[in-house]
Design a protein that fits this description.
Strand 23 (215-216) and strand 24 form a beta hairpin. The protein is mainly β.
Amino acid sequence: MLVSFFNRPYFALSFLCFLFAFPLIGADYYWIGGSGNWSDISHWVTTSGGTVQHNQIPTANDRVFFDANSFSGPNQTVTVTDQVIFCSDMSWTGATGNPRFSAPAGYALNVYGSLTLSPNMVFDFLGDVVFQATTPGKTIDLGGHTLRRNTSFSGSGGGWTLSSPFRVDSLLLLEEGDFNSGSQAITCEILRADPRTALKVDLGTSRVTVTGVPYELYPGSYIEEPVADIYLFNLIWNTSMSTLEFTSPKGSLRLREYGTIAFGTVLFSSPLGRSLLYLENPLVVDVRFEKLEMRNDTELRGPMKFGELSLGPGKNFILEGGRTYELSRLTAPGTCPAPIQIFSSVPGTPVIFRAASGTITGDFMSLRDIHGTGGASFVANNSADLGNNAGWTINPKANASLFWVGGTGMWNDPTHWSLSSGGPGGACVPTANDDVIFDANSFPGPGAMVMINVDNAYCRSMNWTGATGNPEFLGSLEKNLHVFGSLTLVPGMQFKVEGDLYFESSQAGNTITSAGKTFAQDVTFNGAGSWLLTDSLSVIRDLFLLQGSLNTNSQQVALRRFESLTNSARNLKLENSYVKVRAADFQHLTWRAASENFQFDAGHSIIEFFWYADIVKSGVPSLTYNRVIFNYPGSIYSHYIGQPTIFDTLTFRAYGAFTDWNRVNVLEVVRGTNYIIHEGDTLEVNKIIAPDGCSALIEFSSNMDNYAGYLSAAFPDTLSRIVVKDIHSIGPGQLTAVNSTDLGNTDGWVFSQDPGRTLYWVGGSGSWHDEAHWSLSSGGPGGECVPTPVDDVFFDANSFNSANQQVDINSAPAYCHDMIWNGVTGRPRLSSNNFFNLFGSLAMDPNMEYSNFYYLYLRSTEQDQTIRTGANCQVTYFAIKCSGSYLLLDSLVAFSVQHIYGTFNSNSQAVNAERYEAYSNLNPIRLILGGSYWTLTGRDYGYNTAWTVYDSLGTSGRFVVH
């Protein structure tokens, strides 16, 4: 549940405006007086050119007219100054002088009747237009103008007929009523039919042109919404004579829910890019296209029926494996330079073409996993059989070894392809069944270029052995290469293909020789075959193993992210490989694998991560890794009830977290960080290796305070100078913590509790984690171990020896009980860019220089601890996470106040922050405001609210405000 207090007044105001917009009886409103504001009632009279004024602006029941008596000169403007305006009918018929109707973006025009614009006007209304009629018989004539923003039809019982072409620069949304196109042309950027009640759409013989590209419905969601989105439930879609055209290179049509729909012609007309047509969760549907014509690469998902299925030459078509597609005619005019590829989305899983009679014919096609059934004859002329095709008569184009000749040229130019080395050109462009060879006779001189100029280039094996003159192999970002056999590159060439690389063989024994080249985009293995690396593999982006077997053969592998999540049979064998995983962005889980049907042999490999990373296992069976190294914060997830993820050696050189069930032979940790075992989950270990030293602590804790995670040690082990909270040791080996801090809920441990000390900072500027700066007496000798959660620390007159010195908390989290700055000289400064864990009170000195905390955690178990900022301290994240309570003694400036649990009393002090967030969970939260004045600006994260309570469990009574 998300409770947002700051949005409620806006809802109430909008609702009141809505109520007062509707009088009982409609009236005719005529505009007079030339230029003016819509809200100026002196411009609204009861008759054309009359003098009797209305006493209010038009409402939803009122008809408004702009006519020959409205304007006194040319180019006059009606300006909308109210954010939302209403009318029943609106007509500009007869208006003279080329008048302008103007409103900024963000405004809305609500029309409850008909709309008639004039060709002799300027329509400069930049806001949304909403048609909300509740009765039939309404007409819309845009007079050649374009609606500039989102346009919707949402009146229950309403009926509209277009009487002229209809163009919308943004979204066209159909929600309720009866929409009749009048067979007029319609153009929009985004099309959406989403019935709220009954919706009938009659497009007659209209051509509906959709121009947009997929978009993010919510900024930052990283989920692309389709260009056209149609919900079938409650929808009557009479479009069997119309044409729905998508003009962008990324056209997409999604059909949702259950029902019946029949299209006339659906056309993806761009010859570039890739389009998508799919049914989302197609349970009970009947979807028919009189004609589906696809002129670019297109993917189909879900059951469909076609009168005619038309495939563009030279294009690639992916159909959903396991689906049946009924058709009467197939138009597939592939050519020698432009063959057509038709594949199942899941190699090895057939796609069924069913036709009752006649002959289904295509030319120059490459087929894989395509079955023909139903009584018709299926014939593929000059075509390639790539396996698992049934019911077809495939008259083959002879499989060939194609040699590149003639130097620089384009991939799809037949004059560069020959049936012999150095021979005459004129052979067909390669298909997935043809080997391609670049050799000593390919390039007559140095610096030649081979350019992939088609969206998808295909071959069986590709071999550059013997090529001379340092040739370049190029392709732009949207140009992809599909290899159905082996790939052999050579050092004496330049590989500049910027698109994705696909290995799709169904045969065993393929090899990959990269010759030191780096692949610029994703590399995908998606075939039932097998591949062996003969040298290193370097991938700038991601490596996907969707099907088949990959043996890295002890070669070095570099990539950004690895993913293998399908249910197809997969095999990854690493042997002695070193796998370097480079930086991925925060939106991607770095190493993900589904363990079902996945044979993973880690051998003696090392997988090392060089940025924030996650290893995720889904599925029941275990996955076993050899050695894994995290150089930055990392997490291990073993999703679903089943077997654990297993590691021989797991090294965390920064923060580490464990979710679900994990088993580690040797766990290597470092000082100065925190290791999390999620609440209720178990980490099994044989040995924990933690370095000695007292410059920083190690914390083991659960992700949820006061709820335990479980650490199962196979053998007795002793750790020193650690902090433990909410971790239960469940054996069988006894875990002992010496010179350590027990923060509670730590069943099963044996503690040698670190006695609390009083520590003084000495020696001026320096790092918190430098033992030379900690002394047992004011101005005394340094050399003490850094503070622990039970130590009180003081900064006083003997701490600094010159002006403007600084204490830095950067390299690792800091801990202490009380921290008191009192009597310091020289205006010193505290700079904390790491986590600061405070288990007692805080008092900053007004004589300090302005100081900062990146993350200040208030974690006391005691009541009535105090916070004094000295009015010269700023906190980025001020987090209350305590079973005790805190009292604010002076003003607080923070970016975000995060109330995780416990009691915080702002004690009538001023609080300035962007946001207050309460994370209500099983631990109670109590906020006491007193007479405080909180200033919350809420200007970040894209939120309009500044005060938010997140209650994931929906239970009341845990969050209390006084």
